[in-house]
Amino acid sequence: MPGPLFAVTIEKAAKRKTAGFLISIGHGIVEIPLMFIIYYTIDQIVASETLQIVQITVGIIGGVLMMVMGIRIFKNRNKAVENYESPKQESLIAGIWTTAANAGFILWWLTIGTTLVITARNFGFLAFMVFAVVHWLCDFLWYTVVAFLIYKSQRFWSKRLNQAILIFCFIVLIGFGAYFFSSALWSAIISSQ
């Protein structure tokens, strides 16, 4: 999703084709410990009998949040991309700082991310590890490929292509948001019977 980390990737990729690799490493330095913190502290935060209530609440809020973000992307698809001034530090530091300071990232992990960790946790530590590695690898591949492609194809980007990418992001966010919301709502209905 276009956001601060994506903007930093675009800005750094214009100068260095390996920017995405370094930014994703910086992103992982913040994100991976956060996943483990959620995994190991969820029981202390929530009693086991209320875990389902928290999962339903987080699913509903996270689903709504994703749909709102999708709608915002769709509404802003015709606006010009604003220039983003990244810190003068290297790509690795920019990845760490942008991730840690991103309110959307924190909100995502407090809602959608927590739901994913709880779901993986239900299948055991190995499933959680697979989730954590695959999740970070997706980020790693995404930012590395995006940066490389931007570095190689900057001169070919048009407004029409930018809009197509944003509409794709809108569809993905609305789809996942609706899935999280409806799954949580269905769980609430079943548990109340």
One letter per element, helices H and strands E, the order comes to: HHHHHHH
Number of domains: 1
What is the CA–CA distance across the termini?
A: 37 Å
Which structural class is indicated by helix and strand composition? Answer: mainly alpha
Strand tally, please? 0
Average pLDDT, all residues: 80
In DSSP terms, counting alpha (H) and pi (I) runs of 4 or more, how many helices?
7
Computed Rg: 18 Å
Strand content: under 5%
Outline the biggest β-sheet.
none
Helix content: over 70%
Low-pLDDT segments, ≥5 res: 81-88
- Large-scale geometry: globular
SSE topology sketch:
Blueprint: H1 4-13, H2 19-45, H3 51-75, H4 91-100, H5 103-121, H6 125-153, H7 159-192
Helix pairs in contact: 1-2, 1-4, 1-6, 2-4, 2-5, 2-6, 3-5, 3-7, 5-6
What does this structure look like?
- The protein is mostly helical and 193 residues long.
- The chain has one domain.
- It is built from seven helices and no strands.
- The chain has helices spanning 4-13, 19-45, 51-75, 91-100, 103-121, 125-153, 159-192.
- Helix 2 runs antiparallel to helix 6 (125-153) and helix 3 runs antiparallel to helix 7 (159-192).
- It starts with a helix and ends with a helix.
- Residues 81-88 have low confidence and may be disordered.
